[in-house]
Predict the 3D structure of the following.
Amino acid sequence: MHCPFCNTPETKVVDSRLATEGVQVRRRRECMQCGERYTTYESAELSLPRVVKSDGNRERFDENKIRRGLIKALEKRPVASESIDFVASQITKRLMSEGVREIPSHQLGEWVMDALRDLDQVAYVRFASVYRSFQDVNAFREEIEKLVHATSSK
């Protein structure tokens, strides 16, 4: 691993531990030349299903894309970043357990909405408004009424 500060290939691992529920290994490294320390994450490269977009295009699944969508929906909301990482990794695990070669993007969107509904209702409505392309205030109202009804029936 090259040092990100001085680009020297001589680095040593100072500490290793499991991260994100044992899915990754977090390594603390130190450069042998400049002495700077930095953190790297190692994870298994898995063959995940391709995502079929609504226009028919196919692309590789990207957990970071899920994470960015969650972060955007949860902006300025009182939710810890660990919760965001947990939800993103749970969606990835769920995708792997499906055992399919392709998955429609709308299915991933529904999984994100399910997670947001439990995590933060304001973020859920934000995400739903973009994901479902709300056109007017009535669409917001209907979604909020569904959310209130689902919450009260629990």
